Amino acid sequence: MKAYRVTTGEGIDGLAQVDLPDPQPGAGEVLIRVRATSLNYRDLGVARNSRQPVIPLSDGAGEVVAVGSGVTEFATGDHVAGCFFRGWPDGEGRPEYTRHALGGAVDGMLAELVVLPVSAVVHQPAHMTHEEAATLPCAALTAWNGMFEEARLPPGASVLLLGTGGVSIFGLQLAHLAGVRAIVTSSSDEKLERARTLGADAVINYRTTPDWERAVLDLTGGRGVDCVLEVGGAATYAKSMAATRMGGSLVLVGGLGGPAPEGEAVPMPGRVRAARIYVGSRAMFERMNAALALREVHPVIDRVFEFGEAQQAYRYLESQAHLGKVVVRV
Ligand SMILES: NC(=O)c1ccc[n+]([C@@H]2O[C@H](COP(=O)([O-])OP(=O)(O)OC[C@H]3O[C@@H](n4cnc5c(N)ncnc54)[C@H](OP(=O)(O)O)[C@@H]3O)[C@@H](O)[C@H]2O)c1
Question: How far apart are alpha carbons 61 and 155 in whole angstroms?
C-alpha cells in the first residue's frame, strides 16, 4: 500500500510517499480502506518535531474491508471513521488512554490501508461523505467536548469562538445546532461574512478591533459569554478570560499564538472555571455523531487535495487561508 511518512526534523519537505506491506487485522481489529483524511494545526507540529518516522494525520474515514476475529460491531462495507486516540473508549481522560494519539505517538491515517482496534473506530454519520466524515475525529470532537461535555452549554447560552479554523468553525456549527449564541472573531472581514452565513450571531475582526474582549462584553450587556473555546493560547488567553462571565467556562484548547500560561502563573479572577481538554473519547464521538446526524449537519470543507498533493495541503493549512477544514483524498 501507499502511505506517507514524516521524516524526523525535516518539516513539510520531509513528508514523503512510501510503499509498505498491506496490514492485516488481528483479533478485535478492523482493516479500513481510507478514502479521505483531514489536517489539523497539530499536524504541522508533528511534521516539524516528530522524533520518529510516523504515518501522519489523526483524522481519516473510509470503508471496512476486513475484520479480525471477535469483531461484531463492524462488518465489511461499513463506512467508518477512526478516533483520535487508539484507546479512549469512555469516561474521563487518563494518561493511559491519551498516550496513543494517531499520527503522533502511533501511525495515523495518511495511508491507503489502516488497521485499528474496534475501540478506535466509529460508524460515520449516514448523511456524510467520506471526505466530510474525515473532518470529525479531532476538530469537531474537540469543539463538542468543550461546549457540551465540559461546559454543558444549554440552549440560549453563549460561546466565543476565536478565528475560523477547524475547531472554531465546528464550534459555530454545533452552536447553531444547539441554539447557542455564537460570537466569532477573525482577522478577515471576508471570513466573518462567511461565518455569518454559517449562523454566527455576532462577528468581530480581531485585527481591526484589538480590544475585542470589550466588544464581547458590549455584545453581552457587560456580562461576558458563558464559554470560550480558547484556541489562541498566549495571544488571546487573558482577553478570553476577560470576555467570560463570572462562573463561565474557559475551555483551554490550543495555542495558535503560543502556549497559554500554566499552573500558578495563571491569574483566575472572577471565578471563571478553566478546564483543559484533549479531544475526546469514542463515546463522546458517538454522542456528537448522533447530534450531527439528527439535523444532517455537513462539515465545512474549504479545500480538497489529492493524495499526491499532501505537501501542498500542509502548506495551505499553514498559510491560514482556510476556513473550516482541509481534506486530502486517498
Ligand atoms: N486540546 C485539544 O484537544 C485540541 C484539539 C484540536 C486542536 N487543538 C489546538 O487548537 C488550535 C486550533 O486548531 P485548528 O486545527 O482548529 O487550527 P487551524 O484550523 O489551523 O486554525 C487556523 C485559524 O486560527 C485563527 N487564528 C490564528 N491565530 C489566531 C489568534 N491569535 N487569534 C485568533 N484566531 C487565530 C485564524 O483564523 P482567521 O484566519 O479567521 O483569523 C487561522 O486561520 C491549535 O492550537 C491546535 O493545536 C487542541
Answer: 31
Cell of 280: 475526546
Q: Which CB contacts under 8 angstroms, 24+ apart, belong to 205-210?
A: 206/162, 206/163
Helix (H) or strand (E) segment spanning residue 171: helix 166-178
Instruction: Read off the pLDDT of residues 262-285 as tens digits, 9 standing for 90 and up.
Output: 755 555 666 788 899 999 999 999
Domains and CATH numbers, the chain: 2-135+299-329 (3.90.180.10), 140-276 (3.40.50.720)
CA-closest residue to ligand 1 atom 37: 163
Q: Whole-angstrom Cα distance, residue 299 to residue 134?
A: 10
Q: Which three cell numbers stand for residue 141?
A: 470532537
Which of 167, 183, 284, 288 is the pocket-test mutation for ligand 1 (most atoms within 8 Å of CB)? 167
Evaluate: CB of 188 within 6 angstroms of ligand 1.
yes
Tell me the best of 49, 194, 320 to mutate to test the pocket of ligand 1, counting ligand atoms within 8 Å of each CB and taking the most.
Answer: 320
Query: 57 is written with which cell numbers?
Result: 494525520
298-307 b/e (C-beta count within 10 Å ≥ 16 → b) = ebbbbbbbeb
The C-alpha atoms of residue 88 and residue 155 are separated, in whole angstroms, by 28
CA-nearest residue for atom 43, ligand 1, is: 320
Secondary structure of residue 228 in the 3-state scheme: strand
59-116 tens-digit pLDDT? 999 999 999 999 999 999 999 999 999 999 999 999 999 999 999 999 999 999 999 9
